Amino acid sequence: MNYQIVISGIGGQGVLFVTRVLAQACMDDNKRVLTSETHGMAQRGGTVISHLKVGTFASPLIRPGNADLLLALKQENYPQHRGFLKPDGKALVNCRDLDLNLNAEKSELTKPDYISMDGQKMAEADNNLRSFNLYMLGRAIRLVPVCSLEKVKARIEKIFSSKGEVVIEKALLAVETGYYYIRKEG
Amino acid sequence: MRNKNKRSLLLGNEALARGLCENGCQMATAYPGTPASEILPAVAAHKRSEGLESLHVQWAINEKVAFEIAYTASIAGLRSAVAMKQVGLNVASDPFMSGAYLGVKGGFLVISADDPGPHSSQTEQDSRLYAMSAKVPVLDPDSPEQAREMVGMGFRLSESFEIPVMVRPTTRVCHARQDLALKEISPGKVEANFEKNPGRWAATPKFRLQLHKELEAKLGEIASWAETAPLRLNPDSGSPERAIVVSGVSCAHARDIMTDLGLTDKVALYQVLQPYPLHTAFMTDILERHTEILVLEETRGVIEMQLARRDKVRGKESGHVPQTGELLPEIIETIIADFAGVNSSACMLEPVPGRRPTLCPGCPHRASFFAIKKAAPRGIYTSDIGCYTLGMNLMAVDTVLCMGAAISQAAGFAHAYSDEKRPPIVATIGDSTFFHAGIPPLIDAKVQRAPIVVVILDNRTTAMTGNQPTPATGVDILGCEVNSVDIEMLVRGCGINHCRTVDPMDTKGFIKELKEAMLLSKIEGPCVMISRSPCVLNLSRQEQADQYKKIRVTDDCDGCGYCVSHFECPALVLDSENQRVDIDVSLCTGCGVCVSVCPKGSIV
Lengths: 186, 604
Description:
The structure holds 2 protein chains of 2 kinds.
Chain A: E1 3-10, H1 15-28, E2 33-36, E3 47-54, E4 67-72, H2 77-81, E5 85-94, H3 97-102, E6 114-117, H4 119-125, H5 132-143, H6 149-159, H7 165-180
Parallel strand pairs in A: 1-4, 4-5, 5-6
Antiparallel strand pairs in A: 1-3, 2-3
Helix pairs in contact in A: 1-6, 4-5, 5-7, 6-7
Chain B: E1 7-11, H1 12-22, E2 27-30, H2 39-50, E3 56-59, H3 63-75, E4 80-85, H4 86-91, H5 93-102, E5 108-113, H6 127-134, E6 138-139, H7 144-161, E7 165-167, H8 171-174, E8 176-181, H9 198-201, H10 205-222, E9 231-232, E10 242-246, H11 249-260, E11 268-271, H12 280-289, E12 292-296, H13 302-306, E13 313-314, H14 329-340, H15 364-375, E14 380-383, E15 399-400, H16 405-416, E16 425-430, H17 431-447, E17 453-458, H18 487-493, E18 499-502, H19 507-524, E19 527-532, H20 541-547, H21 562-567, E20 572-575, E21 580-583
Parallel strand pairs in B: 2-3, 2-4, 4-5, 5-7, 6-7, 10-11, 10-12, 12-13, 14-15, 14-16, 16-17, 17-19, 18-19
Antiparallel strand pairs in B: 1-8, 9-11, 20-21
Helix pairs in contact in B: 1-2, 1-7, 3-5, 11-14, 15-19, 16-17
């Protein structure tokens, strides 16, 4: 099965990192992958977007109206990149719960594709803020089954293999907590 | 048999580097520039991991020098390559044009990466037009995988005809990632052996005419070289009326779109691997077989121009394909559907403004710009290419033309204005850019006694493109110690008497020095300030901790927003509800410069 995924955020949030983890995890699953990334000046805090295509594709870019998933690491990316979604596509948006309550009237939050998640709050609860993007990734692969949790975990272990056990454990905790969407109070 | 059958996820630029190392390349040079910056570091990584003793890898001071070093290795018999972004080719155009006449010995590749969009460049120029102008064959890859293949193809072509060959990837090839099967790394084993022949390697104009004739003859043969001939991508089911000719990443887009629109057996699809010189037989053949031909290529109509039949051929030059901007797949879908007379559901993304890039929290450039505006509030600020172009957000950058132009433009303004009406003129230029193209204009300004101040923003690195070393760093691409060149000595060597090294984080001291330099420049011509503070991205944890000062905003803050609009540090956040500014501690580097920015003294 083919999947087309848009991952966006702002420079420094780890858009390229998340894309690479997912792309390599899919490869470990014997799938063909093709990505397109943003490098250069935009990485200095500007909008960063990457396209990830899994399956039989020649073009590295996703056409508007074709994406299965938009993973927005910043809420402001949702209106920018929502147009990539196909009619039954899903958007997983990192959005503070606080903002959700304040802006409940906003039209975009009522769109059927919009799935909100306070990734930052979940990461803070585990004192694991650096891995906030992996909480988002965990939930994303549950919503759109492009790759199994096991493959993503195995890939994370490989990527962080030189960083020591604590770093690996925290990264795995992040992706698992996101996957099962376990929300702790506090 | 290391790496055999192994699949690896490679960036297009890494695939090009892999191609060089799989094909016995013995010298690779470059000057960094998006989208080409990652090629050379990937070559260096192979040199380290595979112990490739016979491979020389180096950053050069600019693209012209990089070109000449790699080109010369080739005339000594080695396979060699130079990599740059498309505007870098402007800088290297002199040896490029001449080298085409003289030709090469060992295979020589000029990798010039174009940036349709443009995403990170001054222009959308098409390097293939340069190839055409220089009479050099050019290969146009559609993917990382093909980019890697075209390295080997290019070396063979180059050696068969003793001619430089251009490989022209675009951003979507350079910065695409693809899983591909690795081939074995093959270290080059050629010993350098320069065979003297002044009639060729030092040809005078009389010999040049002969070389030009030989070049033309080579091109004639290259236009029928089998390995680079165009490919028919869909089954050859006779001669449908319509044909689409594609090259580069437009080919990748078109293949998917033809399938989606169900056109695979209705319209002929050809891929051009070598846009110049276009294969002669191919031109004759498709112009005979098809009545309507659509050409999809970036960024000019190079293939289209060679298919010289206005009645049959549609493309960029005919106005059927947009002449500006990136040829995105959704645009290609609309054009193909229209050409084939079928419906498509292609839609364009609604333009929603994104977030503009900004200097990092704690960036010393921001501090320099703030002080320059304070010292010369009505000045003209010429600037240059690098992170500090973002000083535009701070209204501290008025002009950006091309590498090195900050200094010549400052001189140009100085000479254009009369003594009475001349505003203060302050040029800002990065350390790497100063080395690259800032030295000749500084000498010129000195000779002409231009009353300007040049601020060299010396953050000890080439930051914008990923923190490559500069000639002042003393470390090469492999991390080995090399000689370093001192910027201050260089400035003095250009004849500048007044050259001060200052710390941009000391706003008051900086302003005082700048005011003094402005006064002095009226008498003795250009004065230089070296604003020295390392790039925050290069600071070690310890250095970060050492410079960290806890910053807070007092209750006196009335939310005037001056610091946010004039200093634009991402760590300063204006809370519109509470009417005050707060420090985002997750971003603040504790550099403390904002303390001197607040007009009310509320940041402490």
